[in-house]
Design a protein that fits this description.
Layout lengths: L17 E5 L3 H17 L5 E6 L47 H5 L9 H17 L5 E6 L3 E5 L6 E5 L11 E3 L1 E4 L10 H13 L2 E3 L17 E5 L3 H10 L6 E3 L6 E3 L6 E5 L27 H8 L5 E2 H24 L8 H10 L5 H10 L9 H5 L10 H19 L6 H19 L3 E2 L3 H10 L4 H12 L3 E5 L3 E5 L4 E5 L7 E4 L1 E4 L13 H8 L18 E3 L5 E7 L20 H19 L11
Parallel strand pairs: 1-2, 1-7, 2-3, 7-21, 8-19, 9-12, 9-19, 12-15, 13-14
Antiparallel strand pairs: 4-5, 5-6, 10-11, 16-17, 17-18, 20-21
Length: about 625
């Protein structure tokens, strides 16, 4: 059943318990699947209304909608994407296994599917979850935007919706519980972006602020003209695809011999960022043999110790040394067990010395140096985070060749099992992410960690970097270097960009593109619902994330109390998971979060006879 209720029930009228899920993309679909799985145990065959509110199709939602360009790929292999639980997930609810994207679609498991292909899978998952609900549950789909949530802590909630004409529906949805799974949302420009937009307007330039590349109008970027691009992550990869193949160009050959044949309609992309390099390529092999036993130096025991005292936890001071040692442990465990010929000590001796040494100090560095002769086999996270620091190039052309060499070397390493310690570090990153979630609101992170995690663990498919190299050789992409600064030159009416890697070299352009996603902050969110929650007193972290109870995802109010009837999960909250989708048999942090929230919601409804006690004027 789909539609909108047309009237608010009277106070005396019996009402069917209801849950409103705002956001019907992958996270909302995951919550729906967990509700369906837990209903028989916790709620039985009692009547229940489920309302799903999303202007985009349920299942794929906005980001994975099937109507977008097939030039846009997933950032995961088909065999590494699942929406279903397995025995590795720590659940109180039942495990409901299901196919991976590869198994469902027939796509070869090691390939990177298109986003429309993933959208079709998500739509099927949604339909399967919905069809598994008992007849006592009625699902209502509302293809619109939720504007505001109101209602007292101890009473039914009211969810105001935007109608088709863009106005406000006079009769809001009544909900005993509200679950916010809105996913990635737009953002209002911050002060810097407003200033750049004003500069562009005064001089007739093009300025594209942070946005989802698939939704950005790129027609304003003219053929053959220079465009300054700030950002070298996955948003840039999408931009690169849409402005090259998307404008009629094509590739010939494969791998290192790939050649780009321009259409003549491409702009020239001058790209730079803080690091000046793209994210590390996806690993091109499967880790075999013994995996590092994780967690070891940053697990529940260390997290409990950090949570014991009151007050905030400083990421750099309190957490980063433990993370560094944990990632190093995974790296060296793999090196010693899979590549012992490159080590100089028995593993048992190294393990004892490594465990004894304090993290990130001279003693630990000496232990590693004595056991691992080749510096190239040692893990240096600082060097990974700043790969071009201190490098200077004599000319812009020398920088182009230097960056091409760097990307080529990265591709070679990420596809060579001789460097399988990198894959062990990937596993450790996932383990670390789970512990960081436990720290919740106590963690005073500046957002650096999330970017570092994505840089190491969530880079583009290898074929994308081969395309980047081909575009560089064809002159369609030009590298700016690290620590890029962008200026708005009022006198000349142009954007200018420079990097210390090529002293005195400036690039000028009439267009600037911010190739990154909007920051998920409540202060600048484009979601009227999240903005209203923030203005209404919902707590936010220093980084602008909605604070939720790590136990079950309930939204924390300004006084620190969890709201009994409001939940939230996803990238706009402190319950954000480490990646867009879960790999099979990896424990699935998001699956556990969805399960806990679904069980808390069903238990609440089961234990309380919910009737509307909210006056019509509330």
């Amino acid at each position: 059943m789909s539609g909108h209720p047309t009237a608010v029930p009277s106070d005396a009228a019996p009402t069917i318990p209801s849950i409103v899920i705002v956001g019907a993309g992958p996270r909302g679909t995951g919550v729906l699947e967990r509700l369906a799985a837990n209903l028989p145990e916790l709620y039985g065959d009692r009547p229940l209304d489920l309302h799903l509110v999303d202007p985009h199709p349920p299942g794929p939602g906005r980001i994975w909608r099937t109507g977008q360009s097939p030039l846009l790929w997933m950032n995961s292999r088909a065999e590494d994407v699942t929406m279903f639980t397995d025995e590795t997930v720590v659940l109180d609810g039942p495990v409901r296994p299901g196919p991976t994207l590869a198994e469902w679609s027939g796509i070869e498991g090691r390939t990177f599917p298109t986003r429309p292909e993933q959208g079709a899978y998500l739509r099927w998952v949604y339909e399967r979850a919905r069809s598994s609900l008992p007849a006592s549950v009625t699902v209502h789909e509302h293809r619109t935007t939720a504007l505001r949530v109101g209602g007292p802590r101890e009473g039914r909630q009211r969810v105001w919706l935007r109608d088709a004409a863009g106005g406000r529906r006079p009769a809001p949805l009544l909900a005993d519980l509200v679950v916010l799974t809105v996913g990635h949302v737009d953002a209002e420009p911050d002060a810097e972006q407003r200033a750049l937009a004003g500069f562009a307007a005064r001089h007739g330039l093009v300025h594209l602020p942070p946005d989802f590349t698939a939704d950005t109008d790129l027609t304003a970027l003219p053929a053959g003209e220079p465009v300054i691009v700030r950002g070298f992550g996955l948003a840039f990869v999408d931009l690169m695809a849409l402005l090259t193949e998307g404008r009629g160009g094509r590739y010939e050959g494969e791998g290192g011999a790939l050649v780009y044949v321009p259409s003549g309609r491409e702009p020239v992309l001058h790209v730079g960022s803080r690091r000046g390099v793209p994210y590390h390529a996806k690993l091109g092999y499967v880790l075999d043999g013994e995996r590092p036993p994780l967690p070891r130096f940053f697990g529940p025991e260390q997290t409990d110790a950090l949570l014991a005292p009151t007050g905030p936890v400083d990421f750099r001071r309190d957490v980063w040394p433990l993370v560094d040692k944990e990632l190093g442990w995974a790296h060296y465990h793999r090196l010693f067990t899979a590549h012992p010929e490159r080590t100089a000590l028995p593993w048992s001796d190294f393990e004892k010395a490594y465990a004894k040494a304090p993290p990130r100090g001279a003693e630990l560095a000496a232990v590693v140096a004595a056991a691992v002769p080749d510096p190239a086999d040692r893990l240096d996270l600082d060097a990974l985070d700043h790969p071009l620091d201190g490098l200077r190039f004599g000319s812009a052309e020398a920088l182009q060749q230097g960056l091409r060499d760097y990307i080529h070397d990265d591709l070679t390493r990420r596809h060579d099992p001789a460097h399988s310690a990198d894959a062990a570090v990937f596993d450790a990153l996932l383990s670390v992410y789970g512990q960081l979630l436990r720290l919740g609101t106590r963690l005073g992170s500046d957002g650096w960690w999330h970017g570092f995690f994505s840089y190491l663990a969530s880079g583009p498919p290898g074929p994308r970097l081969h395309q980047l190299l081909a575009l560089s050789r064809a002159g369609v992409v030009r590298f700016l270097g690290p620590r890029v600064t962008v200026e708005a030159d009022e006198e000349r009416g142009l954007f200018r960009a420079a990097s210390p890697a090529v002293p005195g070299e400036w690039t000028e352009a009439r267009a600037l593109v911010e190739a990154r996603l909007p920051d998920p902050t409540l202060e600048h969110t484009g979601s009227p619902l999240l903005r209203a929650l923030h203005e209404g007193g919902a707590r936010a972290t220093a980084a602008g994330l909605l604070v939720v109870d790590p136990v079950d995802g309930r939204i924390l109010e300004h006084d620190g109390r969890p709201h009994p009837r409001r939940f939230a999960l996803g990238p706009h909250t402190t319950a954000r998971a480490g990646g867009a989708f879960t790999r099979p048999r990896t424990g699935g942090i998001a699956f556990r979060q969805n399960d806990v929230t679904a069980r808390a919601a069903l238990t609440f409804l089961r234990d309380r006879a919910c009737r509307s006690t909210v006056p019509l004027s509330a």
